[in-house]
Amino acid sequence: MKKMLIAHSPDADDIFMYYAVKFGWVTQPDVAFDNIPLDIETLNVEALAGTYDITAISFALYPHIRDEYALLRTAVSFGEGYGPKLIKRKGEKLKRRFKVALSGRYTTNAMLFRIAYPDARIVYMNFLEIEDAVKNGTVDAGVLIHESILTFDDTLEVERELWDVWQALAGPDLPLPLGGMAIRRSLPLTAAIAYEQTLTDAVRVARERKAELCELLLENNLVRIDGPTLDRYLELYANDDSVELSPLQYEAIDKLYALGFEHGFYDAPIRAEEYTIPREYQGYRHS
């Protein structure tokens, strides 16, 4: 059998969207899937190196790897009225050049933060370390991502929602593109189309069997949060809008890339839909 490794982050939404494959609820003929969980910035850096055939990425990274990878249409995470949070110790006032911890240079939240706070002094660290770094004073503030946005310590408070930064930059009507998936362009096109369909089916089945899947994730200690928090978190980042990119989501990604180009992060503005797998090829082959 062909072995295919899926690289994704260890946060609950990525695990939820993949594990219908891991548990054998969704399969692909003659393909054995396996997974490797890595923090999001490690995934971004490994994507720059071309390490994995299929990998989760921050949407903000994609223009840097567009020649080597195509965007997948599934397993996407967007914020709508929510997203990463800039937090600080309660009662403290941030100075103009405050020291801040971010989860990685290539994350979407880092790009938005750098646009909004060009004078801040940035330290990059694993997302799991950011809350403690703020609590113990290693940094003045930090941007929390993943489950931490729901579970941070009550000695901390939100300075600003990255959703509000996004709205100020992009307008009020677009969801915030956070995480997506990419697939290596050198794979045979027919195989890439089949992999995308399998992963799309996995997210759809995960949604359809959410209660059962969540119970298994909790029983096997595959997530870092309790049941009620898991349920709430998945409705934010692994919801029905995660199954396949919509026209509005494409528009939001394109706006992110236009902003990145405008502020010097990219060498060109790109349109996301032009970098997805051409699924119509299957129809041409059989016409």
Automatic annotation (TrEMBL):
Keyword Protease in record: no
InterPro entries, per database record: Menaquinone_biosynth, MqnD
Pathway field: Quinol/quinone metabolism; menaquinone biosynthesis
UniProt keyword terms in alphabetical order: Lyase, Menaquinone biosynthesis
Reactions performed catalytically: cyclic dehypoxanthinylfutalosinate = 1,4-dihydroxy-6-naphthoate + dihydroxyacetone
Main EC class the enzyme belongs to: lyase
Active-site residues, record numbering mapped to chain: 146
Entry's EC annotation: 4.1.99.29
Entries under SUPFAM superfamilies matching the protein: Periplasmic binding protein-like II
Heme recorded as keyword: no
Function: Catalyzes the conversion of cyclic dehypoxanthine futalosine (cyclic DHFL) into 1,4-dihydroxy-6-naphthoate, a step in the biosynthesis of menaquinone (MK, vitamin K2).
PANTHER family: 1,4-DIHYDROXY-6-NAPHTOATE SYNTHASE
Family in the record: Belongs to the MqnA/MqnD family. MqnD subfamily.
Protein name as it appears in the record: 1,4-dihydroxy-6-naphtoate synthase
Organism: Sulfurimonas diazotrophicus
Organism classification: Bacteria, Pseudomonadati, Campylobacterota, Epsilonproteobacteria, Campylobacterales
